[in-house]
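REVIEWER CHECKLIST
Item 1: Sequence provided? yes
Item 2: Single chain? yes
Item 3: Sequence as submitted:
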Amino acid sequence: MSISRKKILLSTIAAIIFIVLYFAALGMGAGRVLINSNHHSILAEREFQDIVDRATSAAILGFMSQSYQEVIQDSIMESETLLGVIISGSHGEFGFGRQCGSVISWIGSSPRFRTGFGIARNPYFRAVRIDGQRNTTVQAIYSIFDYDFFVQVLKDTLIIVLAVIGLALITLLAEIKLKAKASPTDDPSVSFGSTWQNPTQNNLTWNEPSNPKGLYSSRGIGWELYTKERLESELHRCSSSEEDLVFIVMEARKSILGEESLRKLADEGVIAFTERDLIFERGEQGMALIIPTLELDQGLAKAEQFYRHIISFMTDISGVPPDLCIGLSSRAGRLVEANRLILEASEALSKALNDRKYPIVAFKSDPEKYRDFVKRTGNY
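Item 4: Structure as written out by the authors:
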């Protein structure tokens, strides 16, 4: 599985986890409210029966006398669920509420229950027998859940939801940061074996001699000026035969190689990699190699062998092994131009030059994403 696909898989898994946590928090909050509502309904029915008993027994004080009304009002205030009570008798209807005007409205002299959020739609109703009264009834409206408990559940759920959103944002920012480090350009079609800092422009320029003489330079390899032209030719040939191609650039980080060492480096490059006419100068201390019919993984393995070989027997002018860095890229089944491949290998070399942990870096592209990129932009 490619690194880009692994990143997509990890991002998908993280997104699924966050979604599950989000809905789990909502479900847990809804479940707590539902359970509380059931308990609240049972308690409300019991408290309604208590107030019916009081409305009946308190009639000895005189129906709707001041003392009678105080008993009913105190019963409402002592309950946990009842919000208002309406008692009707021979002389009319009388309303009692936990808070004045909160759940009882008046139409003329008749009280009526209000409806609203958290208030039961169907009030309790019971007919009672009170001496001296006809058609006496008791109605009570109640809350469907504990409001304070509901507020606490909302707070707890909100904290969990905010925590999940915070983790999602942190993950998103971390992924964006990793992508920014991993991607040398704005092209979404490439992925890398490791992340690196943005390279300097100096590592992307090619110092071309204005007037090369002959096919080879004094180092016994091709002039830098001919690199692009020959790479274009080899890319066209490999594309026609559906073969891969690896392009390698190398340079010593801080070591200064003399002319003899540079010629030796070129000779070893011919032995290890390819024909002499496919090796070119790169700047004053670098070298570029075109290796047809080779895949990126094979090129990377060869580069590692070459690296170990060079540092084991070569030295710079100070007598120490050269601090060699290598960058690679490949055609990888793409219709890619020479400039593009040179840029990719140069980006990989820049990473190696700026990061001592990775002296060899391969630029790995995703062919499918690259084709999508070419369709959108028209650039190869």
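Item 5: Key structural point noted by reviewer: The mean pLDDT is 81.
Item 6: Recommendation: ____
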